[in-house]
């Protein structure tokens, strides 16, 4: 198996994080023209939030499976679950950014102003903050795992950083589902 060069893990983490966050902020800020992505029927655009809520729920399950597997010493199962979780995260992000680009930005909150100010906005802010913090943590633990044989991983900060990343990731996905329910189900 070919490994990522060990001395490049921090550099690659930084580069991938900056590029990823730049794309996210560009899409959220309406800086990516809708003409730069393929057009989709309106029903596809409308169903993306629900699909992303399902992806988030499945990702919560795969993160939990991965966490449980590593606690039991099931390294192969842990690896499969966490790679699946990352794939789900990427799928979520691609769909979310596509929708933002096509629609020109996030949906306005249709509910009462008091719910917007005291419930929706704080939940959304925490969700976004955790998602931003998770990106470099996830890249770092994935690159650490990719840069070493399994026997060497325990001598790295993979487990310590991975616990933090998984915890924040779980909360971010859960809050994303709550934001979806507030934005698309309740109101």
3D architecture notes:
The protein is an all-alpha fold and 187 residues long. The chain has one domain. The protein has helices at 9-28, 42-71, 75-103, 113-146, 158-186. Helix 2 runs antiparallel to helix 5 (158-186). It starts with 8 loop residues before the first helix and ends with a helix. 24% of the residues are buried. One of its GO terms (biological process) is respiratory electron transport chain. InterPro entries: Cyt_c_oxidase_su3_a-hlx (IPR013833), DUF420 (IPR007352).
Percent of residues in β-strands: under 5%
Largest sheet at a glance?
none
Helix content: over 70%
Q: Radius of gyration, rounded?
A: 18 Å
Mean pLDDT, nearest integer? 94
Oligomer: single chain
What's the β-strand tally?
A: 0
Ranges with pLDDT <50 over ≥5 residues? Answer: none
> Judging from the principal axes of the Cα atoms, what is the shape?
globular
**In angstroms, what separates the terminal alpha carbons?**
50 Å
Helix-strand makeup class: mainly alpha
Count of all domains: 1
The helix tally amounts to: 5
Order of helices and strands: HHHHH
Give me some keywords for this one:
187 residues, mainly alpha, 5 helices, 76% helix, globular, DUF420, Cyt_c_oxidase_su3_a-hlx, transmembrane
Summarize the structure.
Helix content is 76%, strand content 0%. The chain is built from 5 helices and no strands. InterPro entries: Cyt_c_oxidase_su3_a-hlx, DUF420.
Secondary structure topology:
Layout: H1 9-28, H2 42-71, H3 75-103, H4 113-146, H5 158-186
Helix pairs in contact: 1-3, 1-4, 2-3, 2-5, 4-5
């Amino acid at each position: 198996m070919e490994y990522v060069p060990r001395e490049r893990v921090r550099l690659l983490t930084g580069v991938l994080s900056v590029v990823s966050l730049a794309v996210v902020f560009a899409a959220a800020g309406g800086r990516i023209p809708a003409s730069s992505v393929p057009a989709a029927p309106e029903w596809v655009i409308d169903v993306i939030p629900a699909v992303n809520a399902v992806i988030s729920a499945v990702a919560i399950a795969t993160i939990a499976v991965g966490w449980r597997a590593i606690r039991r010493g099931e390294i192969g199962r842990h690896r499969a679950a966490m790679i699946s979780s990352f794939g789900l995260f990427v799928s979520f992000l691609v769909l979310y950014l596509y929708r933002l680009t096509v629609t020109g930005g996030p949906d306005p909150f249709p509910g009462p102003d008091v719910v917007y100010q005291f419930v929706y906005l704080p939940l959304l802010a925490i969700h976004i903050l955790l998602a931003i913090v998770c990106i470099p943590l996830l890249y770092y633990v994935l690159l650490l795992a990719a840069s070493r044989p399994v026997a060497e991983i325990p001598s790295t900060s993979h487990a310590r950083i991975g616990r933090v990343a998984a915890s924040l990731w779980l909360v971010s996905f859960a809050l994303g589902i709550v934001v979806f329910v507030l934005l698309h189900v309740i109101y």
